[in-house]
Amino acid sequence: MKTHLRAVLRSGKFIVGFTIFAAILLLVFIYPLFNPGNPLQMIGYNSFTKPGTYVSLYDSLDTRRVYTFRPPGAADVRIDAKLSPEDRESIMEWLLSYSEQEGLGLTERDIDIEYTEGLMALWWQYYDSEIRLDGMTIARRREFERLDLRLDGLFNLDDLHVMALDPETGEYDILFATVSDDDYVNVDDVANVIYLPLGTDGFGRDVLKQLVSAIGTSLWIGLIAGSIATAIGLTLGLISGYIGGIVDDIVMFFTNLITVIPGIVLLILISYSISQLERGPVTVAIVIGVTGWAWTTRSVRSQVMSLRNRDHVNLSKLSGHSIPKIIVRDILPYIASYVVMAFILQISIGILSEATLSMLGLGPSTTTTATLGLMLDWSIMKSTAHISGAWWAYYPVILAIALISFSLNLMNTGLDQVFNPQLRD
């Protein structure tokens, strides 16, 4: 036992897989301590708020500590940020049309839309609202006029005045705050600051907080499903492999029947037959477990059949030991390592199966917690995050599923190399 344990601890694949899995577990247990509360609580009224740090604008204006800074290039940074890619494309479109009409010879190579200073220099040099370009509609010309006004506003650095309501007159004529282009506030001085490393989803919920909770729930589903599938498969495999005869025929008949039918079909049929209100995480885990034992049964049966005629087993038979005692004492210890590896794989399969069911709309029905599959369903199927470009709503979920499956399979491979003589170096 000690020799095998040392070999496991020297297995690079097992250590890497275990480290990744342990890091995920630590995240699940530790993060809620720093960010408690309901993971499904809506904190935003906008769909798919991108990742970042959000500061209360009201509290920023109300702060009593305003600092003056004049960092070099601040104006250029401000203009670069406000000049959208669509505005840049429109400027180039007008310049190319004007160049073609007037024969200036400007080409796309001469117009670098990423170089703001040069782009604006060309615009100020050639644009005139009185110019009528051939083939340009009145509506499109009006768009360029509005763009020109908006560009003028980018360079307007006049102070901004925030007015408050006068309760006596009912008019906004009380000066609340004056904001200059060189006024800065320290984030620590602002009362309300929200950190959203992964933004919000289509329902305005914190994605990271939801993801951590979903990982914990999915691991719980995988653990329950894996335990059930492994327990059923181990029991049937031991009985079938050791007793043989008619018992073996009956067990293998049902095992082959389950094997022939695609597992996902069974999952869909059973899940669909359960009402949505009763389809909680534990129920889904049980459904996955009772439909995923077939391959474990076949594998355990094969292992037991190779052990049942060993000398130590025959000696136990001659000693008059009962069948359960022989199975538990003389056979089970020899396949314990294989059972552990099967259990690890069953956990991974359980997590992936839940994600598949949830993407089909047959996963857990819950309003108190999330699973990885439900997060994918909400972001992609319900909110079309992939179309909106909200990558943060589903890429981290996919990465979490991949990391969990990768770590569990890596642990399994490391154990297999230790306990399987044919794979030992």
Q: What is the count of β-strands?
A: 6
Strand content: 5-15%
**Sheet with the most strands?**
2 strands, antiparallel
Strand order of the largest sheet: 1-6
Order of helices and strands: HHEHEHHHHEEEEHHHHHHHHHHH
Low-confidence stretches: none
Radius of gyration: 33 Å
Helix content: 55-70%
Overall mean pLDDT: 86
Secondary-structure arrangement, i.e. CATH architecture of the largest domain: Orthogonal Bundle
**Shape, please?**
elongated
Number of domains: 2
- End-to-end separation: 19 Å
State the CATH class of the largest domain: Mainly Alpha
Quick gist of this model?
With 425 residues, the chain is mainly alpha-helical. Helices cover 61% and strands 5% of the residues.
SSE layout:
Elements: H1 2-9, H2 12-34, E1 52-55, H3 57-62, E2 67-68, H4 74-82, H5 85-102, H6 116-126, H7 138-154, E3 160-164, E4 174-179, E5 183-184, E6 193-196, H8 207-243, H9 245-260, H10 263-273, H11 281-290, H12 294-307, H13 311-318, H14 323-331, H15 336-359, H16 372-382, H17 385-388, H18 395-419
Antiparallel strand pairs: 1-6, 2-5, 3-4
What does the model show?
The chain has 425 residues and is mostly helical. It folds into 2 domains: 2-42 and 204-423, MetI-like (MetI-like fold, Orthogonal Bundle), CATH 1.10.3720.10; 74-154, no CATH class. The chain is built from 18 helices and 6 strands. Strands 1-6 form a two-stranded antiparallel sheet. Strands 2-5 form a two-stranded antiparallel sheet. The protein has a two-stranded antiparallel ribbon with strand order 3-4. Helix 2 (12-34) runs antiparallel to helix 18, helix 5 (85-102) crosses helix 6 (116-126) and helix 16 (372-382) packs antiparallel against helix 18 (395-419). The longest helix has 37 residues, at 207-243.
